[in-house]
Fold:
Amino acid sequence: MNRILVFLLSLTLFHFSVLAQSADNKSPQEVARAYTQQGDFSNAILVLNNALQKDAQNLDLLKALAFNYYLNKDYSKGLTVAKPLLERPDVDVQAYQIAAMLYKGTDELKECDKLYKEGLKKFPKSGPLHSEYGEMLWSKNDFGCIKEWEKGIEGDPNYSANYYYASKYYYFANNRVWSLIYGEMFVNLESYTKRTAEMKEILLETYKKMFTEADWQKNQDVKNPFIAAWVNIVSPLTFTVKDGITAESLTVLRTKFIINWFNTYPTNYPYRLFDYQRQLLREGMFDAYNEWIFGAAGNLPAFQAWTNAHAEEYKRFIDFQRGRVFKMPEGQYYQVAAK
Structure:
């Protein structure tokens, strides 16, 4: 839930398009935002209500007010504000998110379920709505959650949360390849959060589980031609990790994988993640990339020793990574089983 709060707080609720401001005076949105960030939700509500007396139908002000009612745990008042927004022709995804949070606060999960379905009819490609609806279903042990996350990945391929939840789902379902692919997509889309560190642990553990299982290939979704191709490339390379799964052995495995993938399937399955790996390999940063993913998760002292010994190389990769935006193009979606 904290992730949703931060997302809504920082990206959606406090727009500056209403009520012109001078260089010397702050707008009501700015004042309310400052109170919200300080945890003073009552004063934020006061400021927003006063602003709405002059601009009663302003969508951004109303969303901000409903959100602050949520933060103040005044869910009934929040719903009084949020529900009429859902009937407006200019309703947006954030209005549905806020209303859903308020319904969850009142434990009206049936209404919340209905709300998500209604929102997804209007915004079928919304990554946030698919992610949060899937999260709610997962909390009820409804395994239909994976369909929501998959739809979110297909419709909004650069929204990171759906990869996060799908990777974890497949990890617990012993679906190793999809867990690995989606987990690595996630750490490239969301590279420096607590969830990133968690996902790196999952990625390393998934490789360990995969290669310690007898006939691991048979347990994968090989009816899917994309996964069958992945397994076909990796199967002959298991000798690279016969002495253990480490950042270094995985670098060897993954280097051979990316070379063989583009030699065998150069145009069959375009995939941004594999293109990115090949780019790093060509530019001499693939070792550092693999250390970044697996090093600290596997052996922190060894990782620190590696980065000290390759300080310039590692800095070059980190600078490169922080200076670029990883983007997944639409249409590179190969998971058809969950539809």
In short: The radius of gyration is 23 Å. DSSP finds 18 helices and no strands in the chain. The longest helix spans residues 194-211. The mean pLDDT is 91.
